[in-house]
Fold this sequence. Notes:
The chain is of the alpha/beta class. The protein is 47% helix and 15% strand.
Amino acid sequence: MKNKNVTVLIGAGSIGIAVARRVSSGKHVLLADLKNENLDAAATVFSNSGFEVSTATVDVSSRESVTHLAQQATRIGEVTNVIHAAGVSPSQASVETILKVDLYGTALVLEVFGNIIANGGSGVVIASQSGHRLGALSNEQNRLLASTPADQLLSLPMLHLSQVKDTLHAYQLSKRGNSLRVMAEAVRWGKRGARINTISPGIIITPLAKDELAGPRGEGYRRMIELCPVGRAGTSDEVANVAALLMGPEGAFITGSDILMDGGVTSSYFYGELAPK
């Protein structure tokens, strides 16, 4: 008998784990990740903390894989929470991989889980401050990123590899696309009585962020931390605080929105000491 409410966490990293722990008391937690070592570590954390947990390997850039994950979730119970925190950073992957995982993968997750999300359910996608530093796109480009069918998305001329300058540009396009796609999907999710929002964190100290800080853009990231109004990096628990608001009853009037939480880095980029010369 299906009598359980299910949280699906896609991307079992620091931020996703923090969010899932905040919103999943009394729920079955289905952990999904590409890497088994991430799943094993996260499952131990949740199990030792009293959660009922199961795991699944998923490749978000594969429709078959994401569909299989959704089927596994519905066999457990009603999917009431979806947390999508999977992705790769500019220092971790090629332009092609970033677009396929961060942009197409997010579109797939929103589409597939938007078909099964329970009435009263909610979801959150972890995007990035980087999407806010991309220059303005045209209305048509915004529309295409938001509403092009997922399987046609990577064929858009604006996403042709010749049009994407480097991995940072690919990442910024992907994260801008995530917030636009969530805005569009909120309409469809709403017809099922569910909500979906995006959080765009700044530099949150996670293994991914440490890769960036140690990578070729490390100096720039350290400068962001030093010169932003808050003057520090963030923590996964701070992202979880915002996610708990968005996904809980206090956030019941919020859907299709993007919450930028970056310690003021974007403010400084446009109006302060981080502004390009």
